[in-house]
Known about the structure:
Helices cover 46% and strands 6% of the residues. The chain has helices at 2-23, 28-35, 39-52, 76-91, 103-106, 110-126, 134-146, and strands at residues 150-154, 161-165, 182-183.
Amino acid sequence: MRVTDDRYSRDRLRYDLAVRLIRHEARTQTIRQWTGLTDDRIRKLYRSYVRSTEGTRVRRHRGKSPRQASFFNRSRALQEETASLASVLWQFGVLPAQRVPDAARSVPGVARGELLCDAYETHARITPEPQISFEHAVYLAVALAGGVELRALHCRHCRGLGCGDSLALRKATCMSCGETLRPAPLAPAPAPRRAGAQAGTAPLP
Ligand SMILES: [Zn+2]
């Protein structure tokens, strides 16, 4: 009976996360990667979610998820929002302390997905007119965890956090004080906010 109970709670967590992701207008591909649910189960869940929340506007996006690191560098406003979101992702424990290999496969998971939703919802509350969609936030989290297309950079002057793409590392400056940002080992991750919600990662050897 214990095994059945465990499976039930694991499935329940997957479905709860999938509903949160649907609410954030995540793509089916993203929901599949982070919850492990099949496309068929996601479609059914989407239909029943739309039925149960009649009147709530949720768009369903199809096609591929964002893949452009340059998006975060398009304007000063986006650079500032990206730096702020990266800080929140870090504070919520979404980003691992060290770069992880094959981040697109190793980062998505139910526990980290919950933290990612917590972080994005907080970001949306504290940011006036946010321009970064949830899908772009997912891309940012995975890219920063992998450290290939994008890297988390630290300001040695004010300890601010920023991001640089691999081509513009030398030009990235701190949004708070203008100091040149440098790649630096991140401080130890903050304690997870909820028991059992720690998103485990394997550090690079
Ligand atoms: Zn600074």
